[in-house]
Here is the input.
Amino acid sequence: MLKKVDHIGIAVPSIDDALIFYRDGLGMELAGTEEVASQKVKVAFLPAGETNIELLEGTDEESNVSKFVAKNGPGTHHICFEVDDIDAALASLKAKGVRLINEEPVRGAHGKRVAFIHPKGTGGVLVELAQGGSE
Here is the structure.
């Protein structure tokens, strides 16, 4: 079902401030940014081999990322796995009784179809599945 780790999402209060460490300190290349209005988030993409680091900045106080930062401070928000068939993956997880946040895929960054699995079904980690897109 899983092809690879697609990205690790890191919630930050400010992408510009976080880039001081990731881009300027570690020397990571900023591949671009994108606003995902449906998720109320701005995303910065930093390739690290076949995996990306995605810096996530909430664009609204009510976004999940803004709430996460307010409650927990900046840090690892989620891990995303690439899948060949997100519909089949979600159906399989649902049949196994895994708690899903998204029972149907939604649009994510780069036009990918994405869905989140509730941390209560994963041992405490917010997991995202992603399929397709322009990456």
User: Anything to note?
Assistant: The helical segments are 15-25, 64-72, 86-95. Residues 15-25 form the longest helix (11 residues). The chain has three helices and eight strands.
